Amino acid sequence: MTQKDITFVADFLTEHFNEAPELYNRKGKYFNVERVGQYLKDEDDDLVSPPNTEGNQWFNFLKNSTHLKESPLLFPYYPEKSLHFVKRQMERVIDQCLQKPADVIGKSVHQAVRMPLYKTSESEDSTPQLFKLPFLWNDKTSSIHYVLFTILENSISKIYILRRHTDTSRSVSNGILAVEFGNFLNNSISDSSDSRCYSCLDAHFYDDETVTVVLKESMEQEGKERVLAQLPLS
User: Fold this and answer.
1) Cα(208)–Cα(140) distance, rounded to whole angstroms?
2) Residues 6+ apart with CB under 8 A from 40
3) Where does the record place the Anaphase-promoting complex subunit 4 C-terminal half WD40 domain (predicted)?
4) pLDDT, position 138
5) What percent of the chain has pLDDT over 70?
């Protein structure tokens, strides 16, 4: 240890473990506890060494603000309590805030359409994930909601585009379709159909009229090609 380290430890002990006569009536040792650890105790007792908020700019600002002093939008401060206590208080308030929206939203959601995409075996074995997490896009101009997704089994070269009108009482033509990439990047029709097959790594909407896809060459070999393509929805 360097002399600087020793000095730091000595200053720490001097500051935090001096005798504290004002604590003699408490149970346990008559010393100030380490000031960080007291905040982490999972208990509702008051802190042994509460922080000194004198001169704190935020508290002074609140104290001098007529509108913010009693504002229900500000979470109350508990200078005598640990972080565990504050965490429980905050969780209780957040749960209370979210309960009403959850009830309202839950009662308003209903099934607009049911569309079977694939079947899985009914065995008790765990079913592999076949449905890759979709990307959602809302075309506000046409009031149409799009979902891009892939199915990870025999159709890795396809992306699926599902579209629904945001007004569930209306429908749009071609509610779901698949775009297959396959070997469309072959240089000529003489290329082998299996020589340059591409699968989709990712797909996002670029704007209301364009889809951006990242393609990967499917052949098991070194130096696989990656292609960034933009496809018009039309």
Assistant:
1) 9
2) 82, 83, 84
3) 136-234
4) 92
5) 75
99 confidence band (pLDDT: 50, 70, 90): very high
Residues with Cβ < 8 Å from 7, sequence gap 6 or more?
A: none
**Closest to 12 in 3D by CA, of 40, 41, 38, 33:** 33
Residue 148's DSSP bridge partners are 135, 161
Convert the pLDDT of each residue in 49-82 to its tens digit: 777 888 888 888 888 888 887 788 887 778 788 8
d(CA 22, CA 144): 69
Decide: 174 and 153 in contact? Cβ < 8 Å: no
Query: Angle at Cα 154 formed by Cα 153 and Cα 157, nearest 5°?
Result: 100
* Token representation of residue 204: 């996002």
CB 149 within 8 A of CB 160: yes
Q: Where are the alpha helices (DSSP H) in 17-82?
A: 57-63
Strands lying side by side in the sheet with 158-165: 135-139, 144-149, 158-165, 176-180
Strand partners, 158: 180
Helix (H) or strand (E) segment spanning residue 105? helix 83-108
pLDDT, greater one: 211 or 122: 211
Q: Give the count of beta carbons closer than 10 Å to the beta carbon of residue 189.
A: 6
